[in-house]
Amino acid sequence: MKNFKSGRYVQQGHYKSFQPNPINRAWVLDNMELIQLLGQADRELGRLDMYSDYIPNIDLFISMHVLKEATQSSKIEGTQTNMEEALLEKEDVAPDKRDDWEEVQNYVAAMNEAIAKLQTLPFSSRLIRATHKTLLRGVRGKHKQPGEFRRSQNWIGGATISDAVFVPPVHTSIGELMGDIEQFVYNDTQYFPELLKIAMVHYQFETIHPFLDGNGRVGRLLITLYLVSKGILKQPVLYLSDFFERNRTHYYDNLMRVREKNDLLQWFKFFLVGIIETAKSSIATFDNILKLQKQVDSKIQSLGSRTANAQKILHYLYQRPMIDAARVGEAAGISPASAYKLIADLEQFGILKEITGGKRGKMYVFAAYMQLFK
Prior knowledge:
The protein is mainly alpha-helical. 57% of the residues lie in helices and 5% in strands. The chain is globular and about 70 Å long.
């Protein structure tokens, strides 16, 4: 990596665009600190992946991981929806917050659809475009060529292209550059560790900035897709947006440092530290979920004949930890009167907590579970 050259600036009239060099090439990995970090990241990911086999009904809990990723990835782009708001139905969201809410919902849909498509579609430009189309469906970027690579110049930062922080490559080179990413991903003749591959792919994708809008969100979403597509993770249980959001300045600075100073090593270190920290955090979350499950299950056993209905509600709450009386009735298949009685039981156990403070339209949250994702 000592001889790595990220690319060059090309004069385009009154501004310069950055033309990245291809990444599908032979690489030499010769930094011991990086190799040590890589080993640690691999071990932590292996520990995290074990939970896919260890935890019954792990799909229940993945939806909350996806929701957290959606809110944090969107937050990096300026969207202000928190997890509680994201769990609301559209009609319950304040009108001035609905645009942000819809962008978060689209991110959740884009991730879920992309994971499902991996069954029949490889990690590819085609999958990336399909994911982008879902991400921008019906929201603020809906007029910016959803699902299509851009056909004009874009830029990052600055009111105009003249004072931009960074100008990506000209649109005519996007097809070739994205093709190079695909060749790099599937290049089996020259070994390169998978975690460094996706770190490289993320950097290159953000540098190409192939879409008119949504590049940051798609680029971060690709990390999880890659890990699942390569079988490194059986389930989509690792998301880096929370780490990137908490270290936002370093995130952007390290990406720019590659372009400006060819310092790929610093980006790789930052990325691997993110993998290690996030995997450890996710493992701790799963451990705490299992402890909470045991506590909650032991509490509801005292409900006698109502225990089965309480278990149905908990099954719902592990996917969406906010609920009202109508949904309690639907989820358990019981009358409104029985729903209110069950809610009272779950409140008494400290499982549900009323959060609206009103007499009508009451909403309840599974607070202890929600807290595990904060």
